[in-house]
Amino acid sequence: MKTQVGIVGAGPAGALLSELLWQAGIENVVLERQSRGYVLERIRAGVLESGTIEILRNAGLGARLNANGHVHETINIAWRAEELLSIDTADRVDRVMMAYGQTAIQEDLYRALDARDRPPRFDADDVELHDVASDRPWISYTHNGIDERLDCDFIAGCDGFHGVTRHAIPGNVRTEFEKVYPFGWLGIMSETKPLPILLYANHQKGFALCSMRSPMLSRYYVQCSLEDTIDDWSDDRFWDELLSRIPSDQAAKIQTGPSIEKSIAPLRSYVAEPMQHGRLFLAGDAAHIVPPTGAKGLNLAVSDVHYLSKGLIDHYTSAGDDYLAGYSKRALTRVWSAVRFSWWLTSLLHRFPDQTPFDQRTQEQELIYLSSSRAAQTALCEQYVGLPL
Predict the structure, then answer these.
(1) For the stretch 112-134, what's the b/e string if a residue is b when 16 or more beta carbons lie within 10 angstroms of its beta carbon?
(2) Nearest by Cα to 345 from 291, 266, 285, 299
């Protein structure tokens, strides 16, 4: 089989890239190791930057987003389970966020590709990349027990942190940066009416977050030890812990109920440079991971795809290869900005194992300063709502 762009990974990055390329008349094939059902069942974040919202709408993917997405116009941070700072993003930077689950985005993308009769090829095993530094790269894989070969002009690696594409960049070319945090997030999903605001909490017992996926689907998190397991956390224990870490007036608004999903996620920051080598380009989690505190993971994947699709479109429309050649530098500038912001917000809101009472008070004092400085609030909003593409 031959195509213009071979895409490895059918998550949001790979599926969005495929759709944008088809809209420009560029042939592509998407290979996905997992089944369609597995991809759609993955629970991921859903706070969208203003730029992500614009990209999805411009791609014709805004109908359900506009109907079901919940606009967030404030960033809310509590501390000591007493104080609450609410920052109006529309007032500070004239932009807002939106809560719209990644699963819903994935469904929208698959519907668009199905309508083209160009769905991803799921259950593609043993994917390997070949000759990526040449002008004739190709991909080998197994599908339904049959060995297959896909010849491409370019390869896009959108297969996540545990995928194979990043490792096709030679070790003497690739540089990796990593920071592992000494705690995790215990998250639950419940079919309950969510808190109407997106609420972060700094507390002596640890971080907490209240967010939403839809009008009757809530997503909550509490900081926990990496040694904890799901069995250590009953629903009752989780709700008691969450409610103790946020102000009582907000806790009184939370509707508790049985969890329908529960998981513990470790936190890390990771960046691989460069994001391109020869005819191979990385996008999304294949190249970078950020702690979920700043809600940047999905948004970075979308911005990567925005830059990469433009470069590929320029190439095939004879507009030149300058934009494509500059992809890695352009994408990494935004990536490192998000990494720094996510690190700062994580450091501000979490309880670290070696943290002293002095450290806790300095965290709280920074929040007090943030509550009194319009300039500091504007800087926070600029980065949280999303820097310009």
Answers:
(1) bbeeeebbbebbbeebebeebee
(2) 291
Distance between CA atoms of 370 and 79, rounded to whole angstroms? 12
Token pair in block for residue 153: 């002009």
- Ranking 216-220, 264-268, 364-368 by mean pLDDT, the lowest is 216-220
CATH superfamily to which 70-99+181-267+351-385 belongs: D-Amino Acid Oxidase, subunit A, domain 2 (3.30.9.10)
Cβ neighbours, 10 Å, residue 249: 9
Per the listing, tokens 């969208």 go with 48
Q: Does the global pTM surpass 0.90?
A: yes
- How far is residue 86 from each of residues 83, 254, 288, measured CA to CA in Å? 10, 18, 30
Q: Tens digits of per-residue pLDDT, 366-384? A: 999 999 999 999 999 999 9
Q: Give the CA radius of gyration of the chain.
A: 21
Closest-CA residue to 333 (of 291, 377, 275): 275
CATH 2.30.38.10 fits 5-47+101-177+270-342, yes or no: no
Furthest C-alpha separation in the chain? 64
List residues with catalytic annotation.
Answer: 72, 200, 292, 296, 384
Find where tokens 């895409």 sit: 7
